[in-house]
Amino acid sequence: MKNPRFVKRVLAILVVFGLMLSLAACKKKAAQQPQQSSQNKNIEEKITLTFTHMFTNDGSAISTGFYNALNEYKKSHPNVTIKQEALSHDTYETKIKTLAAGGELPDVFVIKGSMVDPFYNNNQIVPLNDALDSDMAWKNSFVEGAFDDFKRGDKILGIPIQVQPTSLIFYNKQIFKEAGINEFPKDWNEFKDAVKKLRSKGYIPITAGNKGKWLVESCILSTLGDRFTGTEWFVSIRDRKGSKFTDPEFVNALRAIDELVKMKAFNTDINSLDNNQQRTLYYNKKAAMFFEGGWAISLVTNEAPKDVLDATELAIIPPVPGGKGKPNTVSGGAGWAFQINAKLDGSKKNAALELLKALSSYAYSRPMLEKGGFPATKVTNYDESKLSTLAKKYQQLAKNIKYVPVYDVQLSPGVIEVMNSGLQDMIIGTITPEKLAQKIQQEYEREASK
Amino acid sequence: MERGLFKPKSRVFIGYLVLPVLWYVFVVVMPLILAFNYSLYDWSGGPRMRFVGLSNYAELIKDTDFWLSFKNNIIITLLCIVGQIGIAFILAALMTTRVLKFKEFHRTVIFLPVVLSAVVIGFIWTLMYNQQIGILNWILRAIGLESLIKPWLDDPKIVIYSVSVPLIWQYIGFYLVILMASLQSIPKEIFEAAEIDGADGFKRTIYIILPLLADTLKVSVMLCIAGNMKVFDHIYVMTGGGPGKSSMVMAQYAYNNSFIMFKLGYGSTISVGILVLSLAIILLSRKLMGGKRQ
């Protein structure tokens, strides 16, 4: 009597469970079917693309170009629905890595140079050579060296978003004058003198926001390091041809930053502000300068009070005495690129590739350039009068600039994490430059041994 | 028949238990086994995995950053035991007195932060700590204590305490509710008798409430340790383990290794390390508190 009742109950539970499972399975099948047939019918089918990126609609040069191109694309592709997710830069970087680790990358996304290797080794992205070669006009529209950060051998693993410097010095010439500095320092010793003078006048010489950990490395060390080591050293590090992070030149570059910290050149809350907050001190005329990449040109133009904007001038890190690097280099390049998920195929892949094309088209580059951005494609036909004063100042400066690699774009994520959080450690004085160099070298060697 | 009502046959019992147990195995035990499995590989998240045996563990034992974050976890745990349970105990004791008015109101207000999202709390406190616009420095300035103003989340010497404060603040209510529940189960006569005997205020707390709540307090301490060994979201939002590694906790370190440095194998090793260390500390604390005397 008891037995059958128990069995019945268990059976009932199992049946319910089974039903739930089969329902879920049905749903899946139903969802899969149209996709399969879409491969045969193409274009007319409804296509949905997921697109995760880091362009919030904030009026910056890049987002203006981006949304302009995206709208054009939507108009010409009414059958494609784009589900987009826009995140801020730091959040985006974390999110995309997390998605990649879980094997759940969106259909179209933005990829950093340093992510190319792990993504590619895990078959999450594919080379875009075929697509580029089938449309030579597209391929040839890019500026020289635009693909450098995304080339592995002959394979091109990303469509560059923009090509820009990551290290410019924005300074307020009024404040400089007030401190008795009439001209931007010509070499590193003069620069340190200037810092002292600004400090004694009560200004924060350099405002910096390093909460995201990349700013000091990307916007200061990458260029300052090149001044000390020369570019050959970095190329040798990247290709594992014998240079070491413990080489005296690189340690000297770390020491130079350490020295700035000891001179109180930075704001005291450097490690809890992010790069957007760092500029607030500059806008309030409490700080005399800040280091940031080309993207800040349009931001300063939009955000700064008029008197600050008028007083703002641009410069690059001056040469260091005895340094091996050339004086006119600035770390920069594409850094980030658009990519598509390796899983895409058929009409979905075509739609995604066309989206990439749209995102390097004239509709993308022109508004970006006119707002003071740095498109990765050559734009000849644009309205020069639309350029802001600051952007014009940059165009002037850019005539002599040569790009050198940015560390965090070309080194592996492991080495970069050690370097970036190590720099935070060094700034708060818990590690010496020598020790930090050793730590980076250790991680670098550990990766080589695998 | 009646017996059956109160004491279900063991088969029925098992029948009802099957689903929850299966669910538990699926969400707790399986990930544990998977994490242990991953920890034996050199793995960056994709299909490529390389078996390396126990070498990840050998690395973990030598990893000073991991032990530093373990130390931070211990500091946070100790602070939280003293802060959360200590303050909750004092508040609970106050609730039994007649001095305190609007008890229901107080209880609700104190409990409110418990249900807030850790991310929101992290953001709010980051703003409060902000050097320029933060309310904390504003108050200090307003009452003339400008010399105390610090970059709260930037100074490696104090950052671990700064990030503990929101944690403590958030969970006081949680322990208050536990202690209150236990207090309410103490018969009123005991308090009345104590009052007649002249034990009030401080004496009553020490000689009556404390011994009667001893078991609940032990459980609270255990909960507190378990919760704080895996603390993550507050610190992730406020400092991301920075500046440098000075507020790094184990969970954050596991996260950094897994998702920032693409070392998922090693990240899993750290997670297993967290589990082992947490269990060890909970067992140790049980030994110290007298274990299962009851």
TrEMBL record, chain A:
The keyword Lipid metabolism does not apply. It holds the Pfam family SBP_bac_1. InterPro entries: Bact_solute-bd_prot1, SBP. Keywords: Signal, Transport. Gene3D superfamilies: Periplasmic binding protein-like II. SUPFAM superfamilies: Periplasmic binding protein-like II. The keyword Cytoplasm does not apply. Residues 1-24 form the signal peptide. Belongs to the bacterial solute-binding protein 1 family. PANTHER family: ARABINOSE-BINDING PROTEIN-RELATED (PTHR43649), OSMOPROTECTIVE COMPOUNDS-BINDING PROTEIN GGTB (PTHR43649:SF29). This is Extracellular solute-binding protein family 1.
From TrEMBL, chain B:
The chain crosses the membrane at residues 12-36, 74-96, 108-128, 158-181, 206-229, 264-284. Keywords: Cell membrane, Membrane, Transmembrane, Transmembrane helix, Transport. Residues 70-285 form the ABC transmembrane type-1 domain. Signal peptide: none annotated. It is a multi-pass membrane protein. It is found in: Cell membrane. Belongs to the binding-protein-dependent transport system permease family. This is ABC transporter permease protein YurN. It comes from Caldicellulosiruptor diazotrophicus.
